[in-house]
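Aim 2 progress update. The chain analyzed this quarter is reproduced below.
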Amino acid sequence: MKKPFVAIVDDDSGFAAYLRTFLSLRGYEARTYTRGDELLASMKQGEAPDAILLDVM
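Predicted C-alpha cells:
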C-alpha cells in the first residue's frame, strides 16, 4: 500500500524539517518545499500530494 504523500511548503527550513520528520515517523511520505512554485512544478510532473501544509504570511 502506498504511503499518503504530504507536501510541506514553508520558508522556515528548520520547521519544515521538523514537520517532515514528525510525519515520516507516523507513516507518511513527506516532502518539503521552500516556495509554492516548487510544489507546483512538482505537481506538473505528476507528483500530486494527498494533502498540503502551506505556510501563508
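The mean pLDDT is 95. The chain is about 35% helix and 25% strand. These observations will guide the mutagenesis experiments scheduled for the next reporting period.
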